[in-house]
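Batch job 17 of 40 flagged for manual review because the log was empty.
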Amino acid sequence: DWSSDVCSSDLVTVRKVVVPGQPDQSELSQLVTADDDSRMPPVGEDRLSPAEIATIRAWIVAGAPPFPKTE
């Protein structure tokens, strides 16, 4: 499960797919809303729900603060 490997600081500083405060400039936001082959999750996997996409967008708008690890 790829979601267990997600780290907020990794998305911002290492992978640089999130621009804090700017969801329209953030690759992560673009990928989860894409309708072409760049979409994530990839074709064949379940799409994120509108609520999940809204949560990601709200997190980015809020400055992409660190989120707690889940076990």
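Reviewer: the log was empty due to a logging misconfiguration, but the result itself is present. Residues 50-61 form the longest helix (12 residues). Unflagging and moving on to job 18.
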